[in-house]
């Protein structure tokens, strides 16, 4: 529990790749506990929905070769591949996947009907190229991920991951999404990161500078095209830009929600400092905007590291009336109670 491997097993169980209407062999109807349409008369256990896997019958059938050029016709009562696929695709079918499932989920189930031998045992790990595990309570990215030798996309958003060991990530990864987790340090992730990674999503985590900026250079991410660092606690804009400028393939950058985004020259400085950037904070950078901010990168003195905030408290309720304390005379033997209050502002 709490590991990616456990979540993967639950994911595969949910897909039901070995259960009707998927699984090995075709399926035949069962009436009264006997398989119909094969001429074997073998008694078989009744299954809900009154269907039985034909593969168990094949083991008892003769291995006599079929005449050349002849194909075995579908016996009466046996489900055709087309009928089984219809059960998967019809949104009103009890075996249909939810509408928000990924295209790969649908593809895997259809493969389990048409060519189930491709998904037997560990073979399923060779087929999967995209893995989406969202909001499943995952805390650990364990080495079980290495079984996916051709994995290109890994989405682990909305979990409880605080650290990612790069040695547990398949080297074939091109997309790694860790949005809405508890990642506060990139050192383990950058020890041996996937060399072909093109998108890294770290939005809504706990990254805070200045120690993290050093991990965002071309030495770790030579092919990075898209980077999401939104809604963290990054504060040093100058240092961050100096590191990001080494990413020659970077075209999409999201930094909104960080304290450094509050500086007055934030967008203009980034636009001029990263000339190959195409999209910043989900807003396209047009040529006229780039021309407008031309030269701003050479004026770092315009970037202020401090800001002044004035907070006015309009009304406070539930506090004792100060006038009651003013009525006490100096030297009075009556008890005096002092109240202290602390107001904290979090930005």
TrEMBL record:
<dbReference type="InterPro" id="IPR001611">
    <property type="entry name" value="Leu-rich_rpt"/>
</dbReference>
<keyword id="KW-0433">Leucine-rich repeat</keyword>
<protein>
    <submittedName>
        <fullName>LRC43 protein</fullName>
    </submittedName>
</protein>
<keyword id="KW-0677">Repeat</keyword>
<dbReference type="GO" id="GO:0005737">
    <property type="term" value="C:cytoplasm"/>
</dbReference>
<dbReference type="InterPro" id="IPR032675">
    <property type="entry name" value="LRR_dom_sf"/>
</dbReference>
């Amino acid at each position: 529990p709490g590991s990616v491997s456990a979540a993967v097993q639950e994911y595969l169980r949910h897909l039901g790749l070995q259960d009707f209407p998927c699984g090995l062999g075709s399926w035949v109807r069962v009436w009264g506990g006997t398989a119909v349409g094969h001429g074997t008369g073998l008694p078989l256990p009744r299954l809900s929905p009154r269907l039985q896997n034909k593969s168990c019958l094949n083991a008892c059938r003769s291995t006599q070769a079929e005449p050349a050029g002849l194909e075995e016709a579908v016996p009466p009562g046996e489900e055709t591949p087309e009928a089984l696929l219809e059960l998967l695709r019809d949104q009103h079918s009890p075996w249909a996947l939810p509408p928000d499932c990924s295209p790969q989920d649908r593809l895997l189930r259809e493969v389990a009907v048409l060519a189930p031998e491709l998904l037997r045992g560990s073979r399923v790990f060779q087929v999967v190229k995209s893995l989406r595990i969202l909001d499943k309570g995952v805390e650990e990215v364990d080495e079980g991920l290495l079984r996916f030798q051709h994995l290109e996309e890994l989405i682990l958003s909305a979990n409880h991951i605080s650290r990612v060991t790069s040695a547990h990530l398949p080297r074939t990864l091109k997309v790694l999404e860790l949005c809405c987790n508890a990642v506060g340090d990139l050192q383990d992730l950058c020890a041996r990161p996937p060399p072909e990674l093109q998108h890294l999503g770290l939005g809504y985590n706990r990254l805070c500078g200045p120690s993290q900026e050093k991990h965002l250079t071309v030495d770790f991410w030579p092919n990075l095209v898209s980077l999401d660092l939104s809604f963290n606690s990054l504060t040093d804009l100058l240092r961050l830009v100096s590191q990001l400028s080494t990413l020659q393939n970077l075209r999409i950058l999201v930094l909104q929600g960080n304290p450094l985004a509050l500086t007055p020259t934030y967008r203009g400085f980034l636009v001029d400092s990263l000339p190959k950037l195409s999209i910043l904070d989900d807003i396209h950078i047009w040529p006229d905007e780039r021309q407008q901010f031309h030269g701003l990168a050479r004026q770092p003195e315009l970037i202020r590291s401090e800001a002044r905030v004035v907070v006015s408290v309009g009304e406070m309720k539930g506090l004792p009336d100060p006038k009651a304390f003013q009525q006490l005379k100096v030297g009075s033997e009556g008890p005096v109670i002092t109240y202290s209050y602390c107001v904290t502002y979090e930005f």
